[in-house]
Structures are given as C-alpha cells and as structure tokens.
Structures
1.
Amino acid sequence: DTGVSQNPRHKITKRGQNVTFRCDPISEHNRLYWYRQTLGQGPEFLTYFQNEAQLEKSRLLSDRFSAERPKGSFSTLEIQRTEQGDSAMYLCASGRRAAGHEKLFFGSGTQLSVL
Amino acid sequence: DAKTTQPTSMDCAEGRAANLPCNHSTISGNEYVYWYRQIHSQGPQYIIHGLKNNETNEMASLIITEDRKSSTLILPHATLRDTAVYYCIVRPTDNYGQNFVFGPGTRLSVLP
C-alpha cells in the first residue's frame, strides 16, 4: 500500500473564509471516509463514499460542508464560511474489504485552525 | 456512541508486555472487534481484529473472552514507539459508514 495522502497538512484561515482539503486514497480502495477529530477525542465520522457515490452523511456535516469524489478517485472536502468551531484535524481514510470485514487506512490529516 | 469502554490511560515499562483491556458487553454475534492506534500527529493505524478466536500478527495479540464481552490487546514487548492512543471498536460484518465509531481510547505511555 502506498498510503493515503492528504493535502494540505496544515491550514490557517480567517473566520468566514472557505477552505478545501484533498484526499488521495489508496488506488485500489473503492471506499473513502472523512472524519473530524478534536483534541482529546477520537475521530468522528463525517461522510463516506463508495466509488463516486456519497452513501452516508453524519448529522455533524452541516450545510456548510460538502464533499465530492469525482470519478471515484480523489476526494475533496470543502467548508464554506468557516467558524472557529470548525478548527479540528480532518482525517481521510480509504477502505479495503476482505472476508466480511474492512480495514481502514488513514492519512495523516489536515489540521485546520480558524482564527 | 461508542459501544466499548476502555481505561483512560495506562503506563507500561519498556520491554514489558502491555495489556490493554476493552469492555464490549453489548456486542452482537456478527460484530468484529477491531483495534487501532494513533501516534501523535498521525492518523489512526490498524493493528488487529477478531471475531471469536484469539488472533496474533506481527504487531500484537488479541485475546477475546469466551462470552465475547471483553477483549485484551497485548503488545508483547512494548517500546517507546508504542506510546499512542489505542482504540477498541466493534463493528458489524459487511457493514460500512458510520459503524467505525471511535471512543476516546486508552492513552498508553511506555516509560524507559
């Protein structure tokens, strides 16, 4: 596995600005997940794609958040009109299913700071 | 909400075995137990998973009680690089999406 790549690693923005993060999954994985993690907490599920289809969204994903996965390859997560409460680590994972179970492989995340 | 409970933190001496417990008393028959760990500033890393039988791989061993209501992750010879937050997760087979629910995990500190 060549690994899940996320860019940028860090993003500092002012409140009210829009930001976009990119995730490049492991190439043969057809499932892609976005999670958010705040200090001292475990990752929280945001949304999930199978190929290009967005199949599930958490109630944490407000209407300011949108995720896409065109052509079932890389994915982007956009946050519009950022708020200070959006400050968190945003993690992407891709999944490989085998024998009824699934392993997730995570990227190193994008750390967002909203000033 | 996570379906597991874990101690908040644990210490282990370098070179000794680290035994991390997890309680999953409401586990269903079709749910796997997964363990992940997260080293500071990195994303979580898969360690091991199991259904009923004990499992071992190059990273760790997983001991699941006969009633499946609890499990223990064993790092046989802990090193300083094993210092991390360890997450125990239960998840149905052949199910996706939200069912990877991470709790706060156990913060393991391996001491020299």
2.
Amino acid sequence: GDSVTQTEGLVTLTKGLPVMLNCTYQTTYSPFLFWYVQHLNEAPKLLLKSSTDNKRTEHQGFYATLHKSSSSFHLQKSSVQLSDSALYFCALSAATSSGQKLVFGQGTILKVYL
Amino acid sequence: DTTVKQNPRYKLARVGKPVNLICSQTMNHDTMYWYQKKPNQAPKLLLFYYDKILNREADTFEKFQSSRPNNSFCSLYIGSAGLEYSAMYLCASSSFLGGHYAEQFFGPGTRLTVL
C-alpha cells in the first residue's frame, strides 16, 4: 500500500543555517505530495505541494522538488528562522473509491535556536 | 474564512464512557475527515465523509462512529473509551473538486485523555 517515511524525528539547528527534512514515499500510482506545518497549539497548514517531476516548488522561503526516480520530496530552506520551529508532516495523496485521502509520515520536529 | 473549528479542545474521559467530538467548517467543503494522532506517530485516518457517504478505515471500523447532520458539521463518537483512545484527534475538510491535489484544511485538534 501507499506509505510515507520521514527519517528524522527531531532536527535542531541554529538560526541562519540551512535545513533539509527528508521525505520518501511509496505508491503504485502517480504521486501527489504535500508538506504540512503545525506550530504549537495551532492547526496543521499546507506549506507546499507538488505532482510535477523535477520541478521546484517554493513557499514562504521553503522549497521542495518531487523526484519520481528516487521517490523523494525533501523539504529545504536556506536559512532557518526562530519562527520555523514547528512540526512538519510530509503526506501523499492516495485515491479511494470515494475520494482522496492523505497518508502521512510520522512528522519531523524542527527546533531552531539563537 | 478557511477555519475548521473543533470542540472541545481538551477532553477528559473515563474508561468505558462514551466520547463525542465535534468539528465544523464554513467553507462548504463536501469532504470531512477525522484523524488520530499519537506522539511520535503519523496522523492516522479514521474515517471521512464525502457528502453524506461515510467511509471508515478497515482497521478502525468498529471503534469509531461518525455523523454528519449537515454539510458544516461532523462528529466523532467513541461508544466506550479505552486507554488506547488517548490521542489528539484532528478534523479536516476539503473540496472534492480539487481531486488528488486538494488541500485539506485542518482544525487545531481535540486532545483526548482517557483515565
């Protein structure tokens, strides 16, 4: 079945450094990938999404490129800020007979320090 | 307004007692979802409504019930809570028109603690 793997449970960084959060997926269908971000005591919100192979998608300084050859959709930022501290989920859209559902990775906590 | 609301935000329940969680959205979305999130685990889809059609995941089929009295509201019902039900419950909604690319809008969650 469909699955998403996020290898890091926790990433800690100093402000201003680059970051990459890993996401790989498995599906037998055409992949639709999402990154959601959840700040403390808030609802998860869509950060970015893609279904186009080898095309970089950007939003709020974050970017990711879907690589179908390696089944990856890693999230990157060139310079993290304190406000980027949050829980990040990678998700794959999976088809059902009744509509779309998301399959999530377990999430990566990003903590940014001064 | 792209807000999904959940009530209550925190819920304390006794083992063996029923639990009812409420979700609402005003975006006229045709699909509403319920996820269960435990620490260090991925959010797990429990069930979703497309319009009035309820779809429950096979492995949680008998553990959770739901109702959707109108387009805006959706509830999650646990008939007899067990310790294993302690988790964050996330509600989300989306539009079927978006297909596989549809964004799901999430509520802030209800943290359920069963004692």
